[in-house]
Amino acid sequence: MDLSNCFAQVAVERKQEEECDEDNYLYCEDCDKMLKNGCSVHSFKVPNSRMKWGMPKRAQRTCPRGILIGWSDILIYTNGARAIIDFPKNTVFGPYEGEYIDQHNMQRFFPSLEGGYTWGIYKNGKLSHYIDGGDESKSSWLRYIRRARKEEEQNVEAFQFQGKIYFRTIKNVAKRTELLFWYDKKYAEFLGLLTKEASRKKMEELAALPLSNNVLD
């Protein structure tokens, strides 16, 4: 019996288990550590209002207390999600709801991209499937949270937890403020995007290079 192969197989299986379990952990900035099922001390959960699947304007009707779908500051959108009460930092909204799209169903996937309401769900770091919130009768109010155009606008971050997409406030949000998101570090890595911190670090590294290295030959 080759013990080295056995140990290698055990190591692989353990790594797969750890990667699979990662989806059950959330980082708490106040505790400064990853916690299984998130932090129960510093996190405040605000679930969607329950509405019948497929009913007219379901997405808007799933708004919890304190959220209103109204005008958006992002001019290309008609509607946006606004706070009508104050929400503290680390308020968690969700989950994002929509129709399931198999990752291999390109005929269904590409049309869904046009609306901008499709989210990929990842398992063990690999794409598992998509959730399309394009149909208002088969989605939730989180479809109206728009992507921030610049860092100063962002007040919530999108993240994946237990196979679903949620949004979390990264600062205190005052009433009458529109919710605008960017991706958390882990989800940004799934998408191959730079986080704000990584982007800033990259710019600092480029600025520190000798002038001759910054000039094209």
How would you characterize the overall build of this protein?
The protein is an alpha/beta fold. 24% of the residues lie in helices and 28% in strands. The chain has five helices and 13 strands. The chain has helices at residues 3-21, 58-61, 106-115, 185-191, 196-208, and strands at 25-28, 33-36, 44-47, 67-71, 79-83, 91-94, 99-102, 118-123, 126-132, 146-147, 156-161, 164-169, 180-183. The strands form four sheets. A six-stranded mixed β-sheet has the order 3-6-12-11-13-10. Strand 4 (67-71) and strand 5 form a beta hairpin. Residues 6-20 and 211-217 have low confidence and may be disordered.
List the helices and strands and how they pair.
Blueprint: H1 3-21, E1 25-28, E2 33-36, E3 44-47, H2 58-61, E4 67-71, E5 79-83, E6 91-94, E7 99-102, H3 106-115, E8 118-123, E9 126-132, E10 146-147, E11 156-161, E12 164-169, E13 180-183, H4 185-191, H5 196-208
Parallel strand pairs: 3-6, 10-13, 11-13
Antiparallel strand pairs: 1-2, 4-5, 6-12, 7-9, 8-9, 11-12
